[in-house]
Design a protein that fits this description.
With about 160 residues, the chain is an alpha+beta fold. Helices cover about 35% and strands about 35% of the residues. InterPro entries: PH_bac (IPR057446).
Length: about 160
C-alpha cells in the first residue's frame, strides 16, 4: 500500500515539475520575442497634447492573433497607467514599469472584449500600431465614456492629419 502512494506521489511530482518547466519556457520565449520588437519601436518625439490618468492598460497582442500576448518591456503587466497623447503617438507609463512609446499608429477602434477583459459594448479602446513589420494591437479602458471619446477623437485627428500617428 505504501508503494502505491510512493508511485502516485512520484508521478504527481514529475507532472508538476513538467508543468512549471513548460510555463517558464513559454514565459522566456514570450520575453525574447518582445525584446526583439524593442529595436523596431517607432520613437515618439512630438509635442504632448493631453495626459489621461488611471487608464487601465489591458493587453498588447499581434493584430492577427488576439489570443497571443506580446511582452514588450513596459507593457508586460496589466495595470493602471498614465497615457500621454503626443502628435506622433502615445506614451504609456505603468507604475513600476518603464515608459513605453507607441508610435506608427494607423487605426483606433472600440470593442467589448479582449484576451484579458470583457466589458460593456464598445467599452475598450484598441490602438492598432506597428513595430517594424509586426502589426500590434494595444487595448485600453479609459475611466469614463467622455474621456474615451476625447481620447479617440484626439488620436484619430493625429492619424488623419499625417496618414499615421
Amino acid at each position: 500500500m505504501t508503494q502505491n502512494y510512493l508511485i502516485g506521489g512520484s508521478v504527481c511530482a514529475v507532472l508538476a515539475v513538467l508543468a512549471f518547466w513548460g510555463m517558464w519556457r513559454s514565459w522566456n520565449r514570450r520575453q525574447r520575442q518582445g525584446d526583439a520588437l524593442v529595436a523596431a519601436l517607432t520613437p515618439v518625439t512630438g509635442a504632448a497634447q493631453q495626459k489621461f490618468e488611471r487608464v487601465l492598460y489591458v493587453v498588447t497582442h499581434p493584430a492577427a492573433q488576439p489570443l497571443v500576448r506580446v511582452s514588450l518591456p513596459g507593457l508586460i503587466y496589466r495595470g493602471y497607467a498614465t497615457v500621454t497623447v503626443h502628435s506622433d503617438g502615445l506614451k504609456v507609463a505603468i507604475p513600476g514599469e518603464n515608459e513605453t512609446a507607441i508610435g506608427a499608429i494607423h487605426r483606433i477602434t472600440t470593442c467589448q472584449s479582449s484576451l484579458a477583459k470583457t466589458v460593456e459594448k464598445d467599452g475598450l479602446v484598441e490602438v492598432h500600431w506597428r513595430a517594424g513589420e509586426q502589426a500590434l494591437v494595444s487595448v485600453f479602458r479609459l475611466p469614463s465614456a467622455a474621456q474615451q471619446k476625447e481620447f479617440i477623437n484626439l488620436v484619430t485627428s493625429n492619424i488623419e492629419g499625417t496618414g499615421q500617428c
